[in-house]
Amino acid sequence: MLKSSVALKDSLPAVTMPLPGPKAAVVLKQRAACVPNAIGTQYPVVIKRGAGAMIEDLDGNRLLDWVGGVGVMNVGYSQPAIIAAVQAQAQNYFHSMINVTTHPSYVELTRRLSALAPLNSTHNKAMLINSGAEALENAVKIARSYTKRNNIIVFSGAFHGRTALTVAMTAKRSYSYGLDHNISGIYRAPYPYLYRAPKGYSRSESIRYYLDQLELVFAQGCPAEFVAGIVLEPIQGEGGFIPAPFEYVAALRQICHKYGILLIADEVQTGFGRSGQLFVSNYWQERGFAPDIIATAKSIGAGLPLAAVISTAEIMDGIQPGIVGSTFGGNAMACVAGLKVLDIIRDQDLCQKALRNGKIVATGFRALQAKYPQVGDVRGIGSMVGIEFVHDPISKQPYPELVQRLINNAVQHGLLMENAGLHDNVIRFLCPLVATPEQLKAGLKIFESALTAALTD
User: Fold this and answer.
1) What is the per-residue pLDDT across 133-168, written as a single tens digit (0 to 9) for each?
2) What is the Cα–Cα distance from 197 to 175, expressed in whole angstroms?
3) Residue 76 domain flag
4) Which Pfam family is one of those matched by this entry (predicted)?
């Protein structure tokens, strides 16, 4: 079995039949009968096993995964050290609620996260929960309790989750269509989306424009002295893989300091090596504008439900007892996986691999941009790269139909991809960081072939 997994890990995409194959088709038919249609799926794929950046379906087809569980599988599928750690923990106990009894892996993981977190403090603390949405929920509660203020500012294009609070913080209304998502204290400012800044503006003028728009929120929506926190994705995920310009974040940090507002970095999708550092906030800290709170999840547990909120000891110990906690948060099996994730990122030098892989893909995307006018923009940091499709480079009209055809064509040839953006016109690159250069080049070849076919469909 191990030999077979190694072969899959090092293999290239190979699809030998139209998808779904006969075995996968049976499961997909069963899924349609018992799983709500609203959950949705756009891939005719039923996974049997995974290794590295590759998956194999029930019919033996092999696909390169550029989705990675939407940013969950940074360390890749089937890491032997993680499998062994989870198996060993399962021999002792699955779970022990941290409010009742203390288990060592919870303490060790919070200790290491607190030491690694790029915050403006030498003494940090962390709490563990189950998901990105829970991390954001708790980050907001912590900010409100610590500052004794109620209001939160979020951004256009944001995605923070699907719970009642986080869906109100989320910009894309398809996630709450037909529901009453009005929760008090949530205000929205325009995200610094430089590709779609006012026409003719320079970079510095665009950044000034977005900062002025934030100040208008203070003037016309919520006075700054009533704002507990500003929640920012360092690179927007669902919004279209849009990096927040460092100049903007530096100014935002000054604004937060001026008004006593906590700067909350939503690193749910950007964390754990994806950017070329453990967090994008590491880049911020190096430049002198670290956040006050980091909320993170996804790849922290290598596929097991795990998330964290990390902040300074002053903030964490300045909140009302009882407002944070979780029955399953910091589950023992998830914690041992999280500890091994940190080891693997360090020992396998995944941050450097993220930079290498991101350069390969971004270079490939920019070569396509030079050939196809429908490629409007290529952007990202490290191995979190987005490619935006438009009808033409002048109008920049989003082209979601092309993107959907591109995804459909690519999967039939062994490349899994996902869209993003408010108009679903961006392809996001979220491949496991362990992908080999040969696999990425094979993926780029499939990508261009699928794009050519999509343009003629």
Assistant:
1) 999 999 999 999 999 999 999 999 999 999 999 999
2) 25
3) no
4) Aminotran_3
What's the rounded Cα separation, in Å, for the pair 420 and 397? 15
Residues 230 and 264 sit within 8 Å (Cβ to Cβ): yes
Residues contacting residue 162 through CB under 8 Å, at least 6 positions apart: 133, 170, 175
SS3 269: coil
Q: Is residue 433 part of a domain?
A: yes
CATH number, domain of 298, equals 3.40.640.10
**Residue 282 sits in the same domain as residue 366:** no
273 within 8 A of 74, measured Cβ to Cβ: yes
What is the distance between the alpha carbons of residues 72 and 312, in angstroms, rounded to a whole number? Answer: 26
Question: Is residue 200 located within the same domain as residue 343?
Answer: yes
- Structural domain boundaries, residue 450: 2-65+349-456
Which residues, in sequence order, are CB contacts of 417 under 8 Å at separation 6+? 66, 67, 406, 407, 410, 411, 427, 428, 447
Exposure class string for 357-372: b at 16+ Cβ within 10 A, else e: bbebbbebbeebbeee
Structure confidence by residue, pLDDT tens digits, 400-454: 999 999 999 999 999 999 999 999 999 999 999 999 999 999 999 999 999 999 9
User: Which tokens is 78 given?
Assistant: 């089937």
pTM of the model: 0.96
Angstrom distance (rounded) from CA 77 to CA 434: 9
Residue 1 has pLDDT above 60, yes or no: no
Q: Based on the domain organization, do 327 and 356 belong to the same domain?
A: no
Dump pLDDT digits (tens) for 8-50.
999 999 999 999 999 999 999 999 999 999 888 779 999 999 9
Distances in whole angstroms, Cα of residue 176 to Cα of each of 131, 164, 165, 240: 19, 9, 11, 19
**Is cis: bond before 398, omega within 30 of 0?**
no
CA dihedral 79, 82, 87, 90 (to 10 degrees): -150
Cα–Cα distance, 78 to 3 (Å, whole number): 12
Angle at 294 between CA 293 and CA 296, to 5 degrees: 150
Which CATH number goes with the domain that contains 385? 3.90.1150.10
3-class DSSP state for residue 8?
helix
